[in-house]
Amino acid sequence: MELTEAIKNRRTCRAFTSEPVSQQLLEEVLELAARAPSNGNLQPWKVYAVIGERLSALKADAVKRIDTQGWETPEYLVYPSPLKEPYRTRRFAVGEALYKTIGVARDDKAGRHAQFAKNAALFGAPLGLFFYIDRSMNQGQWMDLGMFIQTLMLLLEERGVATCAQGYWTGLHLTLAKHIEPPEELMLACGMAVGYADTGSDINSLRSEREVLSEFVTFIE
Ligand SMILES: Cc1cc2nc3c(=O)[nH]c(=O)nc-3n(C[C@H](O)[C@H](O)[C@H](O)COP(=O)(O)O)c2cc1C
To answer: Residue 53: which pLDDT band, with cuts at 50, 70 and 90?
Structure first.
């Protein structure tokens, strides 16, 4: 698959089959993703890959936590609050488009909550990746981690494996830590559900919008 094709095809998957992702494939893409550039070649990414019974136990705990107590206090806020325009509108638009694919109305709070809560079960994915970074790191290293994550998603896409990056886990970092016991110096950046897409699922039909070039590029000559 051409890189351009992988970039065009990749989309966030929110319904997976139970088909496992092979350990060999996973190791291959992780090794390749580590070719991503990083400031000063620090390679600040730390990844935990969770499968099998350990993942089932984590999902069960996470779902229970969300159902009974909701989110934990995150260690960092994914979005600024308040979120200014035009970002607020973009976020709203993709949310509306997502719920439309599954016929959940704007005022159906329970329906929306139920769909959002599926994040805790990684949308049924058989593999969970959790990306950590040393707390001492700066924005530069968070950029590096982002490059690593996107490289990884494209390599998986090339192999027919679907992904959903999940900031959602920032609100479950304590529950997650009980299961994987990361060292204190590490902080969770995000999770990722990984597996094979359930192609018959309506939610996977979403194709998110993008702004036109003139909205985000200024050419100066
Ligand atoms: C770091 C990061 C965290 C994300 N967190 C979530 C999440 O918790 N749950 C979710 O359903 N989608 C999540 N997304 C997916 C975004 O909503 C999605 O990338 C965006 O709407 C664009 O759609 P696309 O990925 O299909 O192109 C996340 C994406 C990124 C890059």
So the answer is: very high
* Cα separations in angstroms, 137 against 26, 43, 209: 26, 11, 32
d(CA 165, CA 194): 9
Beta strand 186-195 pairing with 127-134: antiparallel
Distances 96 to 41, 89, 130 between C-alpha atoms, Å: 40, 10, 27
List pocket residues of ligand 1, CB cut-off 6 Å: 11-12, 14, 94, 119, 164-168, 190, 208
Distance 12 CA to ligand 1 centre (A): 6
Q: What is the pTM of this model?
A: 0.98
Position 87 confidence tier, pLDDT thresholds 50, 70, 90: very high
Tell the CATH superfamily of the 3-78+120-205 domain: NADH Oxidase (3.40.109.10)
Which runs of E-coded beta strand occur in the chain? Answer: 46-51, 127-134, 162-166, 186-195
**pLDDT at residue 59 greater than cutoff 80:** yes
Domain ranges of the chain: 3-78+120-205
Which residue's CA is minimally distant from atom 23 of ligand 1?
208
Residue matched to tokens 């998110």? 208
| Cα–Cα distance measured from residue 94 to residue 208, given in angstroms and rounded to the nearest whole number | 6
Dihedral of the CA atoms 178, 181, 183, 188 (nearest 10)? Answer: -60
State mean pLDDT over 60-65: 98
Six-digit token pair at 48?
A: 């935990």
